[in-house]
Amino acid sequence: GVVLPLGGSKEQKDYNNFMEYYQGFLIALNEAKTDGMNLDVVVIDSEEYPKPELIWQSGKLKGCTMLFGPVYSPEIKSILSYAADNGIKVISPMDPKAENLVTTSANLIQATVPLMTQQKHLVSSLSRINNIVLLHEQSTNDQDITGITKRSLDEEGLKYNSYSYAVLKGRSVYDIIASKLSKEKLNEVIITSNSEAFVFDVLRNLNLLSTRAGYRIKLYGTSKWRNFE
Fold it and tell me: Is the pTM of this model over 0.85?
């Protein structure tokens, strides 16, 4: 079975990403068919169900042995007990946060790289001789990735400057961000945000600091930036 939000509602900004995953899934199915595999696949649009538990209550997962999705960690959590009772392996396709469920759910397979691993790899590529700056948004859902990044920096013994602000203050933070940067060193700037509005604002300020003030900047972001317009 495949459970993805495929309705393309206006509230679902990651719609294109889900469609790309689904298209890749279809290519994999075609290759499996070419190799002689016989598969019976049920595709479920999760947007048709107000609550994720309604998916398995509908009976559409009856006889299923492997389930790709749902996408988000809370949705996956709501379906794990049913899946375990019915011998269904659940594949977490996209949400790194689902890693927290793996240790308590033997039937869950985490396909995406966990946030901790992602950020540790990022931190390992930083240089001690450069100026490291961490920028993040105040009071957002991205506090987990910010906390993980700070812990990874501390574990590596790397010194860094940190600054957080609300996106509505974007026009007044130019000088503050500049004070965190170095004129002499390369500035390795990490932005731990998946908010398109906030990232756009930070990049606008960093672009001005680079082009007008001459700061040398190397930028690190998140994988979700690929879906920003």
Answer: no
